[in-house]
Amino acid sequence: MVGVALLCSSAVLAEEAGFEVKVGGKTYPMSLEQPLKVTTPKGETVELIVSRKKAISYNKAGLAFQYPSEMKLSEATEAGVTTITLESPASPLAIIQLYPASVEAKDVLEALASGVGEGFTERGGQLKALPAPKRTVSGAERQGKAFDVVLAGEQLKIELFAWKEKGRTRGLMLQHMKTDTELASTQFDVILSSLK
Length: 196
Prior knowledge:
By secondary structure, this protein is an alpha+beta fold. It has helices at about 105-120, 180-195; strands spanning about 5-10, 20-25, 25-30, 35-40, 45-50, 55-60, 65-70, 70-80, 80-85, 95-100, 125-130, 135, 140-145, 145-150, 155-165, 170-175.
């Protein structure tokens, strides 16, 4: 067995620097996704590559899903509503909300749509309703609401869904710039295909 120790600095994994590998008393600097060839004390040449996990698991508050490791997760609870926000370094944004079971899914969907409309028009955005989207979310086909938004010269697409599951009402917002449609599709698929 080759004795290789990987030491990470306190830097965030997304940074390119901050890693080193110690092999046989020698220290080698290392970067993410960059191959590094080292020679072990027994003379073996080994190639090492450090990479991020492709997906990270979330499992709290009766909600479980995976999300791409490049997305940043934050969560907050206010007035009995838990909000999980997943932000990509690019434009894709997913927001999952958990409401008490006493709140109806149709009311959540209407409130989300109203909030999107008010929020973007107050900032000078132009909103256009699209045909109701259908997506498989949490193992079932869901129908929601969708909008095209133009804000500060940028074109956005927003999809909203709400449903009841596991004794809670869930709301979902997916948003991305039109130029990031392919990236958004890939990232949202990771989340939606695993959402339970």
